[in-house]
Input
Amino acid sequence: MKKIEAIIRKSKFDEVKKALHDVGVVFFSYWDVTGVGNEKQGHVYRGIRYSTSDIQRRFLSIVVTDEFVDTTIKTILESAKTGDVGDGKVFVSPVEEAFRIRTGEKGYEGIN
Output
């Protein structure tokens, strides 16, 4: 199993969520986060400069079987992309075991 963590634009969240559900990812956790990105300059709107050093994003945490990793990553990359700086990041790490608290099921059954 793998844990996929994605940091995406808040404006793309609904699109990413729908795309993940469409490919069979039925459960994941998410929360709002603030981070600092590569963009060094601020934006100017109606003559007022706004700082873009603190960026509001959404953080997704998804655990999937090894066979489903590529599909999940491809779905996130395609649905979260705008082509502009600040689209986000995806990280993948190994998960040794997973358990469903209610039933005690573990492994694949514990995450589905």
Summary: The radius of gyration is 17 Å.
